[in-house]
Design brief:
By secondary structure, the protein is mainly alpha-helical. It is built from ten helices and five strands, in the order βββααβαααβααααα.
Amino acid sequence: MLLSEGNQSITPTFILLGFSEYPELQVPLFIVFLSIYTVTVVGNLGMIIIIKVNSKLHTVMYFFLGHLSFVDFCFSTVVTPKLLETLIVQDRTVSFSGCIAQFCFACLFGVAETFMLAAMAYDRFVAVCSPLLYAAAMSPKLCALLVAGSYSWGVTCSMTLTCFLLALSYCKSSTINNFICDHSVIVSVSCSDPYISQMLCSIIAIFNEASSLVIILMSYIFIFITVTGMPSASGRWKTFSTCASHLTAISIFHGTILFLFCIPNPKTSWLTVKVTSVFYTVVIPMLNPLIYSLRNKEVKNTFTRLLFTKPLCHST
């Protein structure tokens, strides 16, 4: 991790280029990303509060949604403030420990969100395909285990990859052509052979994506079969509408990840990687609370009551 020069140890530093190649866009991008982050914070924390105060939302689906909102808030908070800083300051250096810490927490919450969405797909499968057994199948203990498992696996993946990154050697100062300390850009500036670390990251990423997609696809295949077998058109539409928000969220989330996987040469497609990474780390955490709240009357009604009831009480 540390290089030595004579008798002194040198702590490496990184320079995040971000979007510095477009100086005329620095201020507009700052305003856009700050607005997105504000909506993300208000939307996700608001969703957590709404679920907490409305007893009608104390259901399994909203239990998972509350944790998804927490993960999205944390994920965005790990990435966006540093992105905003690189847009307005001349000194874009980040310490080695700061870079490693950002990767560690971003990996943790990214993996947790992947399996949180898979757990939500399983919840929809049980609700649609086995409604009479739903209360017994989705017990509070199982829900807690699914959430704890998502966080635990996120911690495991994050700590494993971080330990292998710490085992590498780095130059005194390196330039990172990105706005985030991602695994691929960290190993690209390593002075030692990163082959094992890269292979381990690829194996973990493929396993996480493949296993979560299998759970989601199998759940929705059985949901589709069940829905198409319903005699009532209104029943089919009502059942489909309960899954529409989740389908939208997972399509955006996994579609973005698969697009990143499909980029043939990230080194030559750096702008595509940056834009896609912005969508994955900054935009998606903002979209999830909007997707789930806009289609739900209970959420909108609770938000309205929180917004307007208290001022009316104070005025009287």
